[in-house]
Design goal:
By secondary structure, this protein is of the alpha/beta class. The protein folds into 2 domains: 13-322, ANL, N-terminal domain (Rossmann fold), CATH 3.40.50; 328-425, ANL, C-terminal domain (GMP Synthetase, Chain A, domain 3, 2-Layer Sandwich), CATH 3.30.300. The protein has helices spanning 22-33, 47-55, 66-73, 107-121, 138-149, 162-172, 181-194, 214-223, 245-250, 288-294, 337-344, 377-387, 413-418; strands at 13-16, 37-40, 61-63, 89-91, 97-101, 128-131, 153-155, 176-179, 204-207, 229-234, 239-244, 257-258, 263-266, 272-275, 283-284, 295-298, 301-304, 309-312, 318-322, 328-330, 333-335, 350-360, 364-373, 396-400, 424-425. Helix 5 links the parallel strand 6 (128-131) and strand 7. Helix 1 (22-33) packs parallel to helix 3, helix 1 (22-33) packs across helix 5 and helix 6 packs across helix 7.
Length: 431
């Protein structure tokens, strides 16, 4: 008989490496109610990726099965007031993943954090939240938790499939869903062929994670009930804006104005800063220098940045000019080139490598790599499958004699994108 695990205490961290489920969301809520911080991670991460990510987070437990998860949560209180946020991981320009850490909140701040989401999105007991994205991502987990805490229920159809999602809409009559533009595009393509279901049950359809093409945005607005569709702009670190589609129609391209309790400001170069309430403060776990670089004091209060660039119009509506430097957003998943370069750079036959994104009609962007050396595209593909999760694997390789660099040695990624001509292009590779 196995010995009972040592009980968890406030401040402990539990890495979750298992598929999402109702039990998964309940466990996250119960951990947070006890002041314990779940670290949601992609269960498809390779062993080397897990080792690299978890090294700086020193989790108290690592959970890889539903049975192990149940053993941990059975001794915890029922879900109540979350005393913090899950510790989601985000990579920086160094390619080293960082844990975004709220710390254990005082009860008044915890109540304010809960009210902040509920007041904006209107979570209610009669809500049915349709979960389309993996629950290790911050936005779908946040919407699912908000729904359950308000007394509603969630529906998880499984890995995204347009036909199964359509059947779930018909059967469960969801009222809310969060999605990325790739989800919307695949759903609308499916509905164009098989017929659009009755969408009248939806009161809220929120999308984020990548820029939404104009034509797709207009199809979204036409398909769903009037007033139900929203876009928001945020990051793992925090939320910046929210925008009704009706506002977008008046100002095409905007991602909205600052969320309640926040304000936006720009540096001369367009770097976006967002002031937040105390309950929305964060640190990068175990990385005080990176935390300090992300925050500054303003007359309006503490403000943070993730390095994105934008413009504000005279009414305070934000327009994005670019995501953080070199970031590739493929199907709503953030892929950091430096991290991929660090892994594929160890592939035999690679002398130099640069990873970048090119526009893709389905995924928004697809991950590509320019490689110098003797490794072939097949060599690189096999190595990527061993060492990288599917979203991070390059879909195309360009074999070059040399990479374009500045005088200081920085790769000119824009030149790689402009000159992109892959010697290998395999659409069957995992997205």
């Amino acid at each position: 008989m196995n010995a009972s695990p040592v009980p968890l205490v406030p401040g402990d961290r539990v890495a979750l490496l298992l598929p999402g489920s109702l039990e998964y969301v309940d466990a996250v809520l119960r951990f947070l109610t006890a002041g314990v911080f779940p670290i949601p991670l992609d269960p498809r991460l390779t062993d080397s990726e897990q080792e690299r990510i978890l090294a700086g987070l020193t989790p108290t437990r690592i959970v890889r099965s539903a049975a192990d998860l149940a053993d941990l949560v059975d001794v915890l209180p029922e879900a109540g007031l979350p005393l913090g946020r899950p510790m989601h991981c985000t990579s920086g320009t160094t390619g080293v993943p960082k844990g975004v850490f709220s710390g254990v909140l005082a009860p008044e701040d915890a109540r304010a954090l809960l009210a902040d989401e509920r007041d904006l999105w209107g979570f209610a007991p009669d809500d049915v939240n349709l979960v389309l994205s993996p629950l290790y991502h911050s936005a779908p987990l946040r919407f699912a938790m908000g729904t359950l805490l308000a007394g509603g229920r969630i529906v998880i159809p499984g890995p995204f499939d347009p036909a199964e999602v359509t059947a779930t809409i018909k059967r469960d009559r969801p009222t809310t869903m969060f999605c990325v533009p790739t989800h919307l595009q695949r759903l609308i393509e499916h509905w164009d062929t098989h017929g659009i279901p009755d969408l009248s049950s939806f009161r809220l359809v929120a999308h984020a994670g990548a820029p939404c093409p104009t034509d797709l945005k207009r199809r979204l607005i036409a398909a769903f009930p009037e007033g139900s569709t929203w876009e928001f702009y945020g990051s793992t670190e925090g939320q910046f804006t929210a925008c009704r589609s009706e506002e977008w129609l008046e100002r095409p391209g905007t991602v909205g104005r600052a969320r309640p309790g926040r304000s936006l400001s720009l540096d001369d170069d367009g770097t976006i800063w967002c002031t937040v309430p105390d309950f929305a403060r964060f640190t990068y776990f175990g990385a005080p220098e990176k935390t300090a670089a992300a925050w500054r004091t303003t007359p309006e209060g503490p403000a943070f940045t993730v390095g994105d660039l934008g413009r504000l119009d005279e009414d305070g509506y934000l327009f994005l000019d670019g995501r953080r430097e070199d970031l590739v957003i493929s199907g709503g998943v953030n892929v950091y080139p430096t991290e991929v370069e660090q892994v594929l750079g160890t592939c035999p036959g690679v002398a130099d490598i640069a990873v970048y994104g090119v526009d893709d009609p389905t995924w928004g962007q697809r991950v590509c790599a320019a490689v110098v050396g003797t490794a072939t595209a097949d060599d690189l593909d096999r190595y990527a499958r061993e060492h990288l999760a599917p979203p991070k694997r390059p879909k195309e390789y360009a074999l070059l004699d040399a990479l374009p660099r500045t005088l200081t040695g920085k790769v000119r990624r824009t030149e790689l994108v402009a000159a992109h001509s892959p010697v290998s292009s395999d659409p069957s590779r995992d997205a």
